Design the sequence.
């Protein structure tokens, strides 16, 4: 496990998008940044989330989850690609969170991720819940990258 106190770094409004001066990740790679936001960790993931890169992020995501009090908020607005193997990494993170009495919420997404979640009927698994009623609620947060969207549960 990684020591979060040494690696934690504050997030700006979002990671810079392509063309903003930040070097793009090599093809097939994913990167993440995280910061404590209240009792939750906010994680921004960018690049390509697939079998190879997902396995590389799994341990870091588990460490971030362990370092949070109530769970993880994911900003996936910088993902250019996500396949079923990448989604499995997110589902495993959610399973671990539930076992610890925590949640994993997708706060921002891209059309690529939205399509995958919709095809598999998994949108509601990562939707925020109302603290009083446990109902799914739509969460509108500013999206830091052009082309990213905020994920809202269907039927609301």
Sequence:
């Amino acid at each position: 496990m990684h020591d979060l106190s040494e690696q934690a770094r504050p997030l700006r409004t979002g990671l810079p998008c392509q063309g903003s001066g930040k070097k793009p990740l090599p093809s097939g790679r994913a990167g993440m940044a995280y910061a404590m936001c209240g009792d939750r960790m906010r994680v921004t993931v960018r690049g390509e989330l697939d079998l190879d890169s997902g396995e590389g992020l799994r341990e870091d995501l588990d460490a971030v989850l362990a370092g949070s009090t109530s769970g993880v908020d994911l900003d996936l607005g910088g993902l250019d690609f996500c396949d079923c193997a990448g989604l499995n990494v997110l589902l495993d993170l959610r399973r671990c969170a539930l076992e610890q009495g925590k949640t994993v919420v997708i706060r921002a997404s891209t059309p690529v991720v939205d399509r995958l979640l919709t095809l598999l009927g998994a949108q509601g698994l990562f939707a925020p819940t109302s603290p009083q009623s446990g109902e799914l609620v739509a969460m509108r947060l500013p999206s830091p990258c052009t082309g990213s969207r905020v994920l809202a549960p269907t039927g609301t």
Summary: Residues 1-24, 132-156 have pLDDT under 50 and may be disordered. The first helix runs from residue 4 to 7. The chain is about 30% helix and 25% strand.
